[in-house]
Amino acid sequence: MKNSYKILIAFIGVLLVSCNADDVENRPVVDAGTAPVLLTPLTGFSIVLSKETAKDIATTVTWNKATYTGQQTVVNYTIQIAKAGTNFANPSTVSNTTANSKELTVEELNSAVLNGGFTPYQSNDVDVRIKSVVGATGLPQYSNAFTIKVTPYAAWANWGLIGSATPNGWNDPDTDLNYDLATKKYSYVGPLTVGEIKFRLDDGWAVNYGDDGNDKKLDAGGANIPITSAGNYTVIVDIANKEYTIQKN
Questions:
Q1: Is 200 helix (H, G, I), strand (E, B) or coil?
Q2: Which residues of 191-216 are buried (b: 16+ CB within 10 A; e: fewer)?
Q3: What is the pLDDT of residues 136-185, one digit of tens each?
Q4: Contact 196, 163 (CB under 8 A)
Q5: How far is CA 141 from the centre of its chain?
Q6: Is 183 left (phi over 0), alpha (psi -120 to 50) or beta?
Q7: CATH class of the structural domain 159-248
Q8: C-alpha to C-alpha distance for 106 and 86, rounded to whole angstroms
Q9: What is the CATH number of domain 31-151?
Q10: 37: burial class by Cβ within 10 Å (0-12, 13-18, 19+)?
Q11: What is the pLDDT of residues 211-242, one digit of tens each?
């Protein structure tokens, strides 16, 4: 009886191995065929983006579809951008689609360009290409690239430093704070003298922050923040959580 069980188990094992081998052999093979071809926007396209036209169409990205050999399945396309001349070493995603065209609003293009590390209110050279992939994680193919010029607008509030310790003193314009899209914080790296500072919005006093308790917590309309030693500083401001740090470099 034991031998019968052993024979049965061995037979089942052989059958399972055979089925697995058949599954591998019968699995559809998909290979790269023809890469997508980017058609528009062409090199030389230039646009200045603005908040007032955020919902308007900035441009329509079009391309010829990619082909793959073997059993066909869904092809996913990604519009990618990168700083011109970097060979897409660090590309950013603009949009995903299964179609071969995509209308981009001013707001969508602006967000993509800012997320790609481009500078607001300056004309930036932006490389554009299409990435195609079969299924979710299949074999990628890349299109040709065109270089366009995009001037984005800042999609965040304009906060700055003012005060006797700042380069411009209590005079306009404020010393601008740089916004980090990843951390959602503002920062300034540069000289401060002995004196005082405050944070304010849009170079005006309607919205400003100080620190009543000198406890690194922002208070609306609060007391001036003292700088007791001149030097090069890193100032980081978290407006959302009403916190800040000041560190001498």
A1: strand
A2: ebeebbbbbbbeeeeeebbbbeeeee
A3: 557 899 999 999 999 999 888 899 999 999 999 999 899 999 998 888 89
A4: yes
A5: 22
A6: alpha
A7: mainly beta
A8: 24
A9: 2.60.40.10
A10: middle
A11: 999 999 999 999 999 999 999 999 999 999 99
Q: Spell out the domain ranges in the chain.
A: 31-151, 159-248
The reply to whether domains 31-151 and 159-248 share a CATH topology is yes
Looking up tokens 């932006």, which residue turns up?
Answer: 126
Question: Which H or E run includes 69?
Answer: strand 67-69
Q: Which candidate, 249, 190, 206, 196, places its Cα nearest to that of 226?
A: 196
Asked whether the whole model's pTM tops 0.90, one would answer no
Residue 16: both structure tokens together: 């399972």
Judged by DSSP in three states, 64 sits in: strand
Own/partner pairs, 90-98, CB within 8 angstroms, 24+ separation: 91/129, 92/116, 92/117, 94/61, 95/61, 98/74
